[in-house]
Amino acid sequence: MITMKTTLTIKLAMIAALSANAQVTPENDSVNYSLNLQELVVKSNAPKTKMKNGSMTTRIEGTALESAGSVQDMLAYVPGMARMGGQLQVIGQGTPVYYVNGRRVRDTDELLRLRSQEIREVEVISNPGAAYDASVSAVVRIKTRRMQGEGLGGSIDISDAQALKNGNNNLASSISLNYRHHHIDVFGGVNINNDYLDNYRSDVEQNTYGTVFHSQRGTIDTKQKFSHLHFNAGLNWQMSNNGSAGFKMERGVWLKNYFGVTMDEDILRNKETEDHFTSVSDINSKNPNTFLTNIYYNGKMGKWGIDANIDYYTQRETKDDHISESSLSGLHDVDSRTETSNHLVAARLVADHALWSGNLKLGGEMTYVNRDNDYAISGIDNISSRLSEVEEQNYALFAEYGLPVKKAGMLTMGLRYEHVAFDFRDLTDASRSVRRNNDDFFPSLSFATRLGLLQMQLSYGVKTTRPSYYHLRSDVDYVSRYTLQTGEPTLKNEISHDLGLMGRWRFISFAANYVHIKDAIYDWTTPYNDNGVVMIGMVNFNQPIDRLGIFVNMAPTIGCWSTSNTLGMMKQWLSFNLDDPREATGKREVTYNKPMFIFNSANSFSLSHNWKLELNSEFYSKSHFRNVRILEHYWNLTAAVEKKWKCRSLFGGNGGQLSIRLSCADIFNTARHDVLLDLGNYSLFQSDIVGENRSHYSMHRVALNICYTFNTVKSKYKGQGAGSEAKKRM
After folding, report:
1. Which of 31, 226, 267, 437 has its CA 20 to 30 A from that of 515?
2. d(Cα 210, Cα 97) in Å, to the nearest integer?
3. Is the CB of residue 513 less than 8 Å from the CB of residue 127?
4. pLDDT in tens, 210-232
5. CB neighbours of 8 closer than 8 A, spacing ≥ 6?
6. pLDDT of 593-644, one tens digit each?
């Protein structure tokens, strides 16, 4: 990008050059000159973050984020995103849906397999329009670098991360190959991930208040071992400049998947020690394998642009759980087995066409899901086995029109219609079966404008969140003598109204989102009896929730120093009037309104001979998040050094590159939370929570990554996938 100032400098330089070589002839008073420009170099720092098509787009290539490690590590520093308890979220909007080169990411572990150095840019869409599923509250679109060349290319990547204070090791490696000849592109790869976790300990205290005050105080030790293989292969055919078609297959195979939890607790009744309880749970998942096939066409039919996708997806898992419990009253064993089978067929068609002075986009999507769940349990009398089946059909139509408003900006209007037929059949107890149909319209509206160097966009949309199929089950799972867990097939979808404003000026970008949520779906724990047993389930709140997210990002470049700094705030308004027998009225108001303040900073120093130094920081303050109180500040300070070498390709082509990166994350071991759940007649405290999906993964670790690329050619695959939301709910 050449600015006005740069252009003026070039003109002055040319005038000076002309003047130095000019000769005036008396015949016509003209100027004869000779001009010889040997070389002209223009340097300019393009903005790292800009507004583009309703998104906040951040350039990764050539910035401090280029060498952040995995894409998951990189996204924590992208403007508009934050790491909440180890889980990436769009500020104020929650967990996003991810796309890589237009393809829906089904398994978020792919964000660990991808390296930040492969990424060109990231688009954060905080208020997706009608073209996206109504349950998608935020979208992150990741685009990889554009490579050139033909023949065989690929990369080999090996990384190892070792925790510094516990037995936590993650070893991953991948091989990606791509062969291109003329209009045919064949690609494939394999990834293997080995994770080992041993003796990660948290303190825990659980209290129930009723006619009896029951308390459990002790520790939880966690072990985990898994080995996962992921294969992908596909073909792309570039039929013409305006059309391409192809297919892709993905296969996930778990070689080992073990999870162990040991609870060691003192049991108190009315503040007097009554028992000492130990529970050892060994969970082995057998054949939790996945298979995905995608077929696509992307191109032109006359004046219409066409994007068509068909997906077939299966997922199967058998999980065996052996629980051995010991107390002063003796020993007790409980065994359970859960067999789950998921099948999905989905199709999506989107067509766009210029209409009048704007652009019209029309589309439709169909998703069919079948899920079988067989739960069997032995060793316990008051919990029975369950057999259930779910069928769900979702048909959607949408239209979106973008209209330029002369001398004002761009107005985009959209409307999405969805018909969802949900049929839950409890084959053990027919009275718990549920069948319902939903017909809903989801409007969206946005207006983008520009005032000089200031870009802004105001947007509004209606969204929904559907409960996962796991939360729609009817069986009761036995966790321990004092903890049961169940689903709720009558859960309603939550509805949210989103209002957003975002903008950019030079190297400063900002955004604000306000969300009003009705029938919000939250996890909830209630006392089951006076013996300290609790039931964990999901509920719809009977009152609305309001949530606000604000952030400002500043990303200047000064010499060899490139920095990106995000200052943000997330606040929710949430309160309950809950049962609490400790109060004279039997009720107590519980509020979760404390805001979270965020400051993330990514800093990179580019040195000579392809050396790079980094110092990155994530900070999240004490806050209230959903119905949890976060009691400690979270701070993750990470330092890294990276070196790159250009080398000869082993297979010919345009050469290769070797890079080695060494990093130390969470240097001061402060990247974790202590949390408190207060639900009136029940409370739970737990220390050292560092993640949601893997709640015991230490950030305090040293990691080494070695990557070799040769004759790199980017796959031209343009399949975007269908049925993305249904896959997520599985």
Report:
1. 437
2. 42
3. yes
4. 889 999 999 999 888 989 899 99
5. none
6. 999 999 999 898 989 998 999 999 999 999 998 888 999 999 999 999 999 8
According to the 3-state scheme, what is the secondary structure of 99-139?
A: EECCEECCCCCHHHHCEHHHEEEEEEECCCCCCCCCCCCCE
Q: What is the pTM of this model?
A: 0.81
Structure tokens at 569: 């705030």
One-letter amino acid at 701 equals R
For 674-704, b where at least 16 C-beta lie within 10 A, e where not — what string?
bbebbbbbbbbbbbbbbbeebbbbbbbbebe
N-term to C-term CA, the chain: 44
Q: How far apart are CA 124 and CA 140, in angstroms?
A: 5
Residue in 607, 606, 697, 703 with CA at minimum distance from that of residue 157? 703
Tokens of 211: 């006619």
pLDDT in tens, 121-159: 999 988 888 888 888 888 998 888 755 567 888 888 899
Query: Of 638, 636, 643, which is closest to residue 606 (Cα–Cα)?
Result: 643
Task: Give the separation between CA 284 and CA 602, rounded to whole angstroms.
Answer: 39
Instruction: Give me the sheet containing 103-104, strands edge to edge.
Output: 49-52, 55-59, 119-125, 139-144, 97-100, 103-104
Which residues, 6 or more positions from 279, have their beta carbon under 8 angstroms from its beta carbon? 261, 262, 263, 323, 324, 325, 480, 481
User: What letters, b where the CB count within 10 A reaches 16 and e where it falls short, cover 16-44?
Assistant: eeeeeeeeeeeeeeeeeeeeeeeeeeeee
- Look up residue 86 and give its amino acid: G
| Strand positions, DSSP E, 406-481 | 409-426, 434-451, 454-465, 476-480
189 token code pair: 């790869």
